[in-house]
Amino acid sequence: MNSSAILLKPRRASRSPSLSPRRLLPTLSALFFLLACAGSRVSQGSLHESPNLVSQNAEAKARLAEARAALARGEEAQAEALFRALIVSYPSDPLREVAELELARLKLDTGKSSEAATLFESLGRSKHPEVRERAAFYWGLSLYRAGDYAGAAERLKVLRARRLKASEAVEVLLPLADAQCKTGERRECLHTLEQLAKRQDLGAAANLRVQERLQQLFEAEATTDEARAWYEELEASNPLWVYAARRALRDAQVLGDRERAAAIAARLQQEGKKETTGRHLSARGPTIGLILPSSGRGREVAQHVLEGATLALESKSPPGASTALVSLHLVVRDEQGDPALAEKAMQELTGNAEVVAVVGALSTSVASRMAEQAQKLALPTLLLNPSVSIAAKRPWAFRCFLSSEGETQELSEVARRKGASRFAFLGPEAPFSEAFRRSLEQNVKRKGGQWIGATTYPSSTTNFAFLASKFSAGGLDALLFSESWRRVVALAPLIRGAGQGKIPQSTMRFLLPSASYHPQLLAQAANHLQGALVSLPFDLANPNPETSFAARYRARFGREADTYALFAYDALMLLRQALSRAPAERKDLPERLIAEDLAAPTAGPSPHFASSGELRRATRIYEVRDKDLLLVQ
User: Fold this and answer.
1) From CA 472, how far away is CA 496, in angstroms rounded?
2) Which residues have a Cβ under 8 Å from the Cβ of 489 and sit 6 or more positions away?
3) Vertex 533, ends 440 and 311: CA angle to 5°?
4) What pLDDT does 137 receive?
5) CB of 631 within 8 A of CB of 534?
6) DSSP type of residue 310
7) How far is CA 130 from the centre of its chain?
8) Which residues, in sequence order, are bridge partners of residue 364?
9) Which of these, 31, 531, 580, lies nearest to 323 by C-alpha position?
10) pLDDT of 313-370, one tens digit each?
């Protein structure tokens, strides 16, 4: 635990029976906060969304948008500076509290729980109910992250009266249940989990997290007496009863009480609960550990990963397959964006003989730690991370994701086949953009092409008039444009116009990485993107809703899949295929995953890994023709 976490632990009781005014102030502050939140029944939007406060100040709105854009690019220091500047410059504007809330969330997501808790406590005195409500949630979460479980439980309980949406229910009630268990309030924990388990709207991925927590409570935390009491008290119609029954059955078997064990087994069979325990810590068969930031900054991405993995487990073997895909179980561990928690989770899962591999590592710091542990523990680990160096020279680590190097190589290779030899780069001054610039320059020079140069600009740039003359000198075949799709829509006409008279529009191609694509891109700018090459891992050429990953994901989860969902799906399909050949053991996986005849039915273009631990191919290349994308490679 870091020093910021220690600061939030409950203070020891004073030796004096009386409280000084200084000691009384925090108590009164917390009481005021709780009463204010409890008295507000107005709820606007999700707890994870910023409150919808209206400002008439265009400059304040622009500052907030700039800070959010910096945060979306991963430029946390710049985002913090911009949030603070807005707070100081516009102290009476409604957006000040929005900036304070987002700054506090940034502190929480970067592990500064003590600072975050202080900010959220202050926001609890806001005159806006939606600000107070969000502050209550994040204050409780800050205390939970810092290890102050009693304080976290006290504050998160306030939100139980809120009409929680499905995603909110998981994010509020799971930490609440965990805090209650850690403070010895296991019966309260049981009631909180029951509230979650009875919901019908959580979805497969969220249900998996709830099932995991229930399994942990009944199998690892509850005493024998508690489990016995719960088994006798709960009705069989209660979704928690099956967990209590299975624990009671296990205890009876351990104690040698054959008569009781037979009676419980008969009751389970009678209730039709024989195979409905969800995912187990010690599942009866090969098990994959998912190590994700389920309650951290990457929780939205983690949800997509869970959904992609769930869809993979539900997938059937392709027609005509020589071997049937093995069935797998999942166990989920929350690393909260903390490499130390990810390491602890890997060590725990390694001790379970049924766990044959782990998947995760959304952040680079977590990915590096997991790659080290994969080698140390001899545990096959598939990393959903864009950093190519993390799996290098580590036979137990595999990288299952896109990378700037991989996308640039594929885009420039296709461009060269189509006659391009002179390359340039355009993009903002940001780490993700710099990675593409560096990769393109190295690739062009290594392949003997002509490097024209790079044009970069501050991320906050709003005036792009300089582009009207930048490319007017001609001599350019391909321009790698690393930007958001909205910027591509806005700037492509300007760049095309700059070349008229010097560069025939048909000869200069845009090269667009996957992050620059959106379904609306062609609808809004197809005329200016003709001939552009676009990197996308999805198979857009498959129209069959029964086999198309994108169509199946949309039908299953009601939204479009992103790249994290796709590569989580592929990671599980690669593992299912590799484990289809008996025996299904950890030691066999590294060799099987790189076998050229693996032929896993993945959604992406690579059916196996290379010996380097990288996917053979991580993306597909499409060409813009009219308003369509046609597969080129």
Assistant:
1) 10
2) 520, 521, 524, 525
3) 100
4) 86
5) no
6) H
7) 25
8) none
9) 580
10) 989 888 877 778 888 888 888 888 889 989 999 999 998 888 999 999 888 889 999 9
Q: Are the beta carbons of 146 and 5 closer than 8 angstroms?
A: yes
Q: Token match 């200069």: residue?
A: 508
Question: The dihedral of CA 489, 495, 498, 503: what is its sign?
Answer: negative
In sequence order, the 6+-apart residues with CB closer than 8 A to the CB of 139 are 33, 117, 120, 121, 124, 155
**Position 278 confidence tier, pLDDT thresholds 50, 70, 90:** very low
Q: Does residue 155 sit in helix, strand or coil?
A: helix
pTM for this one? 0.70
Rounded Cα gap, residues 610 and 404, in angstroms = 18
What the block records as the tokens of 619 is: 């993306």
Angle (nearest 5°) at CA 35 between 33 and 37 = 70
Q: Which two tokens stand for residue 495?
A: 């760049």
Are the CB atoms for 399 and 385 separated by under 8 Å? yes
Contact 41, 181 (CB under 8 A): no
Average pLDDT over residues 178-182: 90
Residue with tokens 């953009």: 433
Q: Tokens in use for 422? A: 């002179």
Backbone dihedral region of 476: left (phi > 0), alpha (psi from -120 to 50 degrees) or beta? beta
